[in-house]
Structures are given as C-alpha cells and as structure tokens.
Amino acid sequence: MRDAEQTRQKILEVSADEIHKKGFTATSLSCILARCEISKGALYHHFQNKMELGYAVFEEVYAPAFIAMWQPPVEAEDPIQGLCDFFSAMSKNMTCDELVCGCPLNNLCQEMSGVDEGFRIRILAMQQQLNLLIATNLLRVSSQLKPDLDFSQIAYFIVSTFHGSSSLSKSSLNKELFEKVVKELCRYMQQLKR
Amino acid sequence: MRDAEQTRQKILEVSADEIHKKGFTATSLSCILARCEISKGALYHHFQNKMELGYAVFEEVYAPAFIAMWQPPVEAEDPIQGLCDFFSAMSKNMTCDELVCGCPLNNLCQEMSGVDEGFRIRILAMQQQLNLLIATNLLRVSSQLKPDLDFSQIAYFIVSTFHGSSSLSKSSLNKELFEKVVKELCRYMQQLKR
DNA sequence: AGTTTAACCGACCGCAAGGTCGGTTGCAAA
DNA sequence: TTTGCAACCGACCTTGCGGTCGGTTAAACT
User: Fold this and answer.
1) What superfamily in CATH does domain A49-190 come from?
2) Contact at CB, A181 and B157, closer than 8 angstroms
3) How far apart, in whole angstroms, are the C-alpha atoms of residue A38 and residue B45?
C-alpha cells in the first residue's frame, strides 16, 4: 500500500499546518517527519529541499485556500455586505487558538518576504490577485457607491487592516481586539455606500 | 578606557538594529559581537542570555522610540491632522529599505508573541499604551468629531491598518502600496470629523 | 520468475547556533 | 604597592538543524 501521491499530500498538509503555527524557519523537518510517520528519505524523494517544500505548500495549499476563502464574500451581490459578514463570521466562529496563528499569507509575508526572493514573488502575486479580486467586484457595484473612489486603494486598505488586526490579536491572546478592529472596518466599508 | 555602560549601550544599539532587520530568532549573537567588536564574554557579562537581551532591547530602545514617534502627532492640537501628516511624512521621507524592515513592534509581535510569554506581555503593554494615547487624544477633540464614535476601537483600527500596510510593503519592495493604504487611512480619519 | 525502478529508509555529515567557564586585564580603593 | 573585583576574553561544549547517500522494499512490467 504505497501511494506516492498520498504521501506527498500528507507531507504538504502537515507542513502547511506546522508552518502556519510556527512559521517557516522555526518549522523543523524532523517534526514534520514525525507527524507524517515517514523517514527523511521519503520527504527528500518528493521535495528537493526545505525551500521547495515551502513553495509547494504555498502554491498547493495556501494559495487555493486563500482564494477559496475570499472569493465567495467578494463575489456576493453586495460585496461590502459580503465582506462584513465574512469578517463577522470569523470573529464569531474562530477559536482564539486559530485566530492567534494569524493569516498564513500575512505570516509568511512578514517572515519571508525580506529573506527569500522566491517567497516574496509568490506572496506579491497573491496580494495582487486578491487586490484585483476585491477591486473589480467593488467596481462592479460602483453605481451603489460614493463617487471618486479608488477601488484598488480601498482593496489594499481593507486587506491591510485585516492583516494588521490578526497581528494585534497575537499579543492579546483573545478575540477582543480583533472584533473591535473588524467592527470598525465594517463601519468604514458601509460608509463607502452612497 | 573601559566603560561598562558604554559597552552595554553599544550592544543594545547594535542588537536593536539587527533584530529590526533580521528578526529576533534570525539575529545571531556572533553577528552582534562582530559589529560591536567585543567578545562573547563581554555580552554575557551584561546580559543573562539572548532572551534577556531581547527584553532589554525592547524596553530600553524600542519602547521609548515608539512612544517618541507617536506622541507628537497624536498630541498636536488636531490629532487627526497630526496623524495624517505623520503618515504622509513617512511615505515621503523613508527609503524603501527602511520601510521594508517594518515597524519593530509589529515585527516582534508577529514573530514572538506566540512563542515567548515575556515578549508577549511587553508587546501587549505597548499596544495598550499606544491605544490609550491615541484614544484619549481623540476624546480630547471629540467635540469636533462625529457623535457616537468608539475611540478605543478607532485607535486600534488605525494602528492595525498602519501595521498591515508596512507588512504589505515587504512583499512589494516599494512604497507604492504603503502610500496607497496611508492615503486611504487619511481619508478615513478625516471622515471622522463633523 | 526475473528484472527494473520508483518509493522509501535511517545512519551519518557539516555547520552554526546559544551558552559555559577558567583565565586575563585594568582600574580603584586600602 | 598591594589587593580585590568588575569588565572582558575566547576556546570549548552541546544541541539541533538542513541535507546526503548507500541500501532496502514493494510493485509493475516483461
């Protein structure tokens, strides 16, 4: 019962979880191996080195999950309401443990953008993709919004605030600050309407 | 010409710079020793271990600098205009290299809050102090602002957005995204006025 | 059945990290 | 002048990391 693809997926899944919780550098291969119950040889059969594993996790786990997470609220009939509901649901449904881990994209951005070009490029592409997604959907309903708004600017603003608020939560170990910021973010977004 | 205090200060200063650029974990003592031109014995004479050095850097370098940075704009007659000018000046005056390093407080928050309790406590205290500083000064001019605003919530919102925007800049390697977010942040803040 | 090869094993390597400790130096008080 | 001690030195230690590589196993094909 040797299934190469299954092994590979298991490695990606466990690695994604470890990197999310500990960060890329602090994640040790031996820890991944232990959780997957495989040997070092198996891992290095599927991935060239730790970096390539990191890239694969980003491209095959984080990026799809990220898009799958943002797309529905943004593509709702009313994207602003969609985003408000999206953020509010996070406040309510996420446990503190989950919240404190932060967004994988933001975490990697903070940790790896300045250190490794490969990560930087991938993260930047993801940021731009998300920005485009939000901006175009705001443009779609621009008739219901105030005039003279810069949608790309607004999209970056929203994402920045969201990422900043997850960062805030890390030090407080509770949802309170996150909820406060999200609440104000919703208030801001609603103000964009006519 | 042995000056213990001067040695200590030099260590703090160099460490602060290294930690700012590389992060706490990635900062190596040997690198600090080399830049200070001292031996490992000297460092361990002044600090118990790397953690204690980190705490000292936070308390004696980062915290004072942080307050010194935010206090003037916030305590201006018009704190909202003060903050707008403050952010705009950062956009204009900071080089990309500086900007990409991010805010030391936010960096440490991201990296260390979940890993070390000592750091977490100190960072949280700093966040709260800053929040209080901003909130009380908004309260001071509340007569010029719209009614029914939650100043603490707004203060956390502003700081979150600021930190999120420095995070964004790390992947883009230029000021553009930072400027965009800051511009929108100023627009938001001005809207708080009656 | 024999052969080939992808998939996997795990002992081993080099390295750099944080940290230790016995020894040395220079200054100041007695 | 002697003595005491803070300030400093640097060789050495342990630990854990990412990475290598010769060997083994299982399954698919001839």
Assistant:
1) Tetracycline Repressor, domain 2 (1.10.357.10)
2) yes
3) 44
